[in-house]
Amino acid sequence: MENNKAQAKRGVYLLPSILTTFGLFCGFYAVIASIKGDFEIAAMAIFFAMLWDALDGRVARMTNTQSAFGAEYDSMADLISFGVAPAILVYQWTLSDMGKIGWMAAFVFAACAALRLARFNTQVGIADKRYFQGLPSPAAAAVLAGMIGLYEWLPGQGYELSLSGTSENTIGWIIAVACGILMVSNVRYHSFKEVDFKRRTSFRLVLLAALIILVVAYEPPVVLFAFFFLYMLSGPILTVFGLQQKRRQKKRNKSL
Description:
Elements (H helix, E strand, L loop, with lengths): L1 H8 L4 H23 L2 H24 L5 H26 L6 H23 L8 E3 L3 H17 L14 H16 L4 E3 L12 H16 L1 H36 L1
Antiparallel strand pairs: 1-2
Helix pairs in contact: 2-3, 2-4, 3-4, 3-6, 4-5, 4-6, 5-7, 6-7, 6-9, 8-9
């Protein structure tokens, strides 16, 4: 009887579920906009999905409304918003011109996003909260969306993002595959979860936050892509420095 009563009390917490649904809608709309060829709108929809994704978890923790259902629902929404939607977006934007290797790259991104989310769910409560194992799927999606948003924002039709003659097709393929591989890698990324937003802070930090918002508002495509691209690179850099420190520590221990 007690088990039946406990099950009856289990329900869906309304507020975090609504926020998750908003994020799911943004991801779904990004797919629709990509199919229609509205790439800039699709990229913006993915960024809005990131906003709702950040809010639903924080609201659930603040209101003590976490649940197993909410965690599973959030993962399903994330798979659409940060796995399927960016994969379709980059495919429609440029990879469709590359034939089989184009849709294969898009599939690699979507599959790696699904694997990344599954691994994250199995490590909840076990992994170090200070770091993510592998590139988070929202950040990977933001790199693709930011790249495409930046390209669409640049003046002139047919403008090529070129590095020594490399077209946007090749760049899109490389970044899509690189983001997919980094998502399922063991490369560590800062989670910034150790930052306590509830404690008192100095006026300078508040001023810095205001300046960051102003910079993002001034040139959103440039700033957003630069931020998430640098975050993508920070993982390998952090890993290399960590390995070097371990080697130095081993040498010191041996010398002692």
